[in-house]
Please model this.
Amino acid sequence: MKGIIITIGMIFILSCHHGRIEEQSGTAHGDYLEFANSSNIVIEQLDSMQIENLTNLGLIWGFLKYYHPNIAKGNYNWDYELFKIFPEILKSENNIHRDSIFIEWINGLGKFAENKKEISIKKEIKLAPDLGWIESSGFSNELTSLLIKVKNSKRHRKHHYVGYYFTGNPKFKNEEPYPNMLYPDAGFRLLALYRYWNIIQYFFPYKNLIECDWKEVLKEFVPKIVNTNNGTEYALTILELIERIHDSHAITLNHNYSLANHFGKFSASVELTFIENQPVVTGFYNENLGRDTGMEIGDVLTKINHVSVAEIIDGLLKYTPASNYPGKLRNLAKNMLRTNDSIIHVEFIRDNKPQNKVLRVFSDDKHDLYHVYSKEKDTCLEFIDDGIAYLDYSVLENKHIPKIWKKIKNTKGLILDIRNGTSGDFPVLLFCQYLLPTKTPFFLKSTTKHYSIPGLFTIEKGYNVGRKNKNYYKGKIIILVNENTQSTGEFQTMAYRVHPNAVVVGSATAGADGNVSKFYLPGGIETWISGIGVYYPDGSETQRIGIVPDVEVKPTVQGIRERRDEVLEKAIELVNR
Model:
């Protein structure tokens, strides 16, 4: 959630001796020097057995990474150990030979202690580790027994590759981003797949909502990632993989420059929003450049560069991570008017008549693509009609609340507009002390902060808001939400909703709640996940579903053309009832 400071573990230059590593200055030596710039893995074609073997390698490599005590100590550069075993696995002749390679590999990692009795879990389990594959994958009895021994090993709280923030979400450490590899070789590409897949396998609180067997995704992407032919295909395959977890937090940053070339380095200064499932002009990223296009608010696009909108959407969906369909449309709208040319040809409907125009395009520094989240106002408070207060939540800060309370405490209605994000502040806890009659629970969370059992998520204590307060707010509270209400906006909506006279109005929110955790993939690709699970006090989900409004109201194309805010109009109507 916004407001939580995320830090990155320091990346050390490693000196290596006999397969082990020490943290010190200098350059890499010894066994790992050969992997400084290349994994030395070249794969021209995969057969079905190799795909199966590489899938099993991804499963076992990730399991050992998070479960083996000697890897947790940082005794091995686990990326480079992967490259050392790749050739043997690729050349393995049959399952017996393959399993013998795995057995020798694991035994070579050194001895470790086992737990003499099963670990007792006293908290409610939300998600158990998915380790059934150890016994169901058809491995030899010796390999299966060895993996179970690792599973039952004694693990310490400190881990070389993962720690935890005070909020309970994972902090991924010592994950080299290999930023200069815009198109990594086959070994590094598989490393990207294995790293991402296993982070989701053991640290994603919503893995149960992915809608498919996550292990099948690993098998599907082994040939996909190997068969990419250039940096663009590699980056797009990573995006397609990220999309599979259905998480609006799963953005990519600092990614391969080839993605910018793929989607387009330039864009028209026209803001599109999906209204009634159609891309509609709702504003301009730069007023002067936008007005020069000749487009008008309410124009409905039908074709872009002679390609139908439906076909464009279909092509973008699998590269657009989001928790739900409204979130996907919100995100892909920003890519629809991008190009590497100097113009874009658009066809659209205005006043029930088809029209077309040629739009000039500009680099992103010429307009503000995220202006809706960066508004500047002298005040966040306005008064609508008689006795109705309106708060623009995107600019509300803690310092405003005492003064605001004096002005609104006797009004008949308070409208909290959380449709355009939230400020960098976190006013909900203080504001609820004024608004609510008593201390009230509003959410539960699940975390994987179990150092000894990676992949286990248990229900933790949630938050209460408010306090015992006979002078609480007696009027109606109307909370406005839409697909732009995400993460901390959803979290704060849940808190205000516990007011006895609260009503949520609008449309389903983005469905991505819980503090974010970030990590890197080869090629310098930075990506995020929701790091903790957030639920209502009864245990029901918010992820993917979002905050479901009590009164659903969506903008219409006609309302956009008439410059009306139909959601706000409904809120005023509800206050006046």
Notes: Residues 1-30 have pLDDT under 50 and may be disordered.
